Amino acid sequence: LDADALTLLGADPALRAAARAREDATIVTPHPAEAARLAAKDVAAIQHDRVGAALAIARQLHAHAVLKGAGSVLAHPDGTFAVNRSGNPALSAAGTGDVLAGIVGACLAQQVDAEEALRIAVCVHGTAADLLVARGVGPVGVGASELADAARELLNRAGKLRN
């Protein structure tokens, strides 16, 4: 769940309760403003304690969550978390969250469990942005389609290494 789905969750307690009651895994990918709406806090409070905010969202929604931003925090319903250090400001461009959601969805479609799917997706997403910047593309002006192409390249390279 991303973007408008998170806005709806933040505004509707019944919808939050339904999300929390799901037996299947739920994955949410808020940026700090979306996290603030979910937590009924301001963005400064979210940024002040990014780990705590991500863990609270994961608990509140019984979901795997990534609080996007510098040092994206991956939090899980069991109270565990990790911090991803890949990525750069290119990921703040419109549509890049959709690329992340697509990578997560692709992992899930291949029967990767939700926690691992989120970890893989966040790492590939950030590393794709880093690859583009290393090539002199961005961080300003990177488009979501360029990011998707770089992510595809990374995944294809990784597949060749495994074979």
Radius of gyration: 15 Å
| Strand elements, count | 4
Number of helices: 8
Uncertain regions spanning at least 5 consecutive residues: none
Largest sheet: 4 strands, mixed
Please tell me what the overall shape is.
Answer: globular
Major β-sheet strand ordering: 1-2-3-4
- In sequence order, what are the helices and strands, one letter per element? HHEHHHEEEHHH
Helical fraction: 55-70%
Mean pLDDT over the full residue set: 95
How much of the sequence lies in strands comes to 5-15%
Distance between the termini: 33 Å
The SS-based structural class is alpha+beta
Q: What does it look like?
A:
It is a single chain. With 163 residues, the chain is an alpha+beta fold. It is built from eight helices and four strands. A four-stranded mixed sheet has the order 1-2-3-4, with helices on both faces. The chain is globular and about 45 Å long. The mean pLDDT is 95.
Compose a concise summary of this entry:
By secondary structure, the protein is α+β, with helices and mostly antiparallel strands.
Topology (elements, then pairings):
Blueprint: H1 4-11, H2 13-21, E1 27-28, H3 32-39, H4 43-48, H5 50-61, E2 64-67, E3 72-75, E4 81-84, H6 96-109, H7 114-134, H8 144-162
Parallel strand pairs: 1-2
Antiparallel strand pairs: 2-3, 3-4
Helix pairs in contact: 1-2, 1-3, 6-7, 6-8, 7-8
